[in-house]
Amino acid sequence: MLKNIKGMNDILPPDSSSWKELESSIISVIKNYGFQYIQTPILEPTDLFKRTLGSETDIVSKEMYSFIDGLTYGKVKEGTNYWEGIKAKNDVDYFKRWIFAFCSIHTTWENNVKGYEYLTNDMSWTISKDRLLEMINQSSLGLTTMRYKALWDFARKFRANPQQFYKKRNETWQECRNRLAKETYGIGLAKTSFVLNLSFPVEASVCCLDVHLLRFLGWDKKETPSLVKYEEMEQKWLDKCDEHGLGYGVVRELYWNKVQGKRNSRYWSYCLEK
Fold this sequence. Notes:
Layout: H1 15-31, H2 46-53, H3 58-61, H4 73-85, H5 91-103, H6 109-121, H7 129-138, H8 144-160, H9 173-183, H10 189-199, H11 211-216, H12 227-244, H13 248-260, H14 266-269
Helix pairs in contact: 4-13, 5-6, 5-8, 5-10, 7-8, 9-10
């Protein structure tokens, strides 16, 4: 069943006659003070209001609607089929999605892909700390000390018990994400969400709120949002996806493609197809 957009209800008889009477009375008064008629567009870009009112006001954060231009049924279906086709199907796939997320921290998508391919083409580092340090130094990823510690700690824990990195039966997806972000060194809420979205693109009800998506959702501060604020903004995204029956991770990637000016994700995600 179709629903009216909040704040955009139709004015129908008999209410419309009262509305017109009120409108006429207001117009007659303001004309006496020298005001003239103007007409503005029904919809304006969200950024116009963010710049003038600030992203934390109720008008921007609660009463405004932003649209992802060009998000058609065909694009959603194409994206869903693609991401469902390359999602993690076993422990090895899941392990590699984590590696991809670790490689994505504070670097470009180009270096992310190069680093991921380098580390997954030779997996000997998973049992040798020296080999891992050597490979990270040879890659173009940067943040060598942090990435070395994070990857080794993760690989050691995953080898010991892969199941600890999966969603537990009694957990929500957000609880799973929060637990993993807390227990896994070197990775935060956004990147842990990224892993889950890459691995379970339709069912994982979390969202990787990177800088672009944070800005889209009204966060224009330099500091990272708190857990409470992150989940508040995340819920807006999840609710909008639920409203249209869309996969959470799929729509996030479609938005990222829009930001990058790309038709689809294969300019970087091809490396996950192997």
